[in-house]
Amino acid sequence: MAQESPKNSAAEIPVTSNGQLEDSHEHSFNRDLKRSLPVGLGLSETKITSHGFDSTKEGVVEAGPFPGSSASPKSSVISPSSAAASRLAGQGCDLIIPTGGRAQQKSGPVVLADEVKNPAMEKLELVRKWSLNTYKCTRQIISEKLGRGSRTVDLELEAQIDILRDNKKKYENILKLAQTLSTQLFQMVHTQRQLGDAFADLSLKSLELHEEFGYNADTQKLLAKNGETLLGAINFFIASVNTLVNKTIEDTLLTVKQYESARIEYDAYRTDLEELNLGPRDANTLPKIEQSQQLFQMHKEKYDKMRNDVSIKLKFLEENKVKVLHNQLVLFHNAIAAYFAGNQKQLEQTLKQFHIKLKTPGADAPSWLEEQ
């Protein structure tokens, strides 16, 4: 009861039969407004412009000389009372205070608006765009497989990609065979080591065949040692080729997949633009054509960028591949040749050339003190 609820301006300010405000209410409103004005600033120096609820513009409060007044405007702060503020709010004037809690003073009309973005609506818009893009791309893929749609083809780049995929399969086969050879060589070295220990044991227990068992024991131990050296070279070859195939080439193929996705999106939006251009041009279709043109240009730039990235990666991959495989093939050849020729010095020199360090059997195993 003590607090006055804000009302509509049309309901609060009565109008007489001739369309003018009633004097009593006008006098009350001017009296409240004078109380809220500082000393020295009269009603003649303030002009209030308000709009009803049906107007699309916001209320504007302008401080300046009223027409017919010769007084110059004074810079002062207006602190309206609660009654005047309620009447101003009822007339559709928007009073918005910044988040800092201080009112900003600007010359001329001030229009303040606070648009709060709804996260749910933003997510819904993202889902809508993603669904539309997925639909267009799926339609383009199906039309290409059915032979109805056209696709953009870069013959030179497509040929390089096909060669890369074919080489990757061949390198994977070499890697698989090298791993099989390493496994078999490890088993042979293990068997030779055990055979050498057996010959050495028999040379100590058989006095008649002491020398014969001793020769064989030394031979098997030497073969096992050379086998371990060869095994280290083969494992180094396997690790280098594995890095090339499963990391370097795979990273390039991942970029190729992104390029192919960009190509599908580019063709999908290109097809949409062509269909709209073939149709009628009127007030309804022109905005759609303009929007489709913008989307087409955006995906065209993305497609050109991805095509350039793939070309650069293929170039660097070819240079890196030649360098890596050259060193690894030389290592593999020299190690195999020295091993089967029985040239132990050459085999050890090959490992030093490529900075390969052999792991001593049991070196990685912790001691019994560390296990406690």
UniProtKB/TrEMBL annotation:
Which residues does the UniProt record annotate as the domain AH? 152-352
Look up the record and report any one GO term of the cellular component aspect.
trans-Golgi network membrane
> For the region Disordered, what residue ranges are annotated?
1-36
Q: What PROSITE patterns does the entry give? A: AH
GO biological process assignments: intracellular protein transport; regulation of Arp2/3 complex-mediated actin nucleation
Write out the entry's keywords from A to Z: Coiled coil, Golgi apparatus, Membrane, Phosphoprotein
Does Hydrolase appear among the keywords?
Answer: no
Q: What does the record give under GO molecular function?
A: phosphatidylinositol-4-phosphate binding; protein domain specific binding
Q: Where in the cell is it found?
A: Golgi apparatus membrane; Golgi apparatus, trans-Golgi network
What does the record list as coiled-coil region(s)?
154-181, 289-320
Main localization is: Golgi
Q: Which SMART domains match?
A: Arfaptin
Q: Is Phosphoprotein one of the keywords?
A: yes
Under the heading InterPro entries, the entry gives: AH/BAR_dom_sf (IPR027267), AH_dom (IPR010504), Arfaptin_fam (IPR030798)
- The protein's superkingdom reads Eukaryota
Q: What is this protein called?
A: Arfaptin-1
Source organism: Phalacrocorax carbo
Its lineage opens with: Eukaryota, Metazoa, Chordata, Craniata, Vertebrata
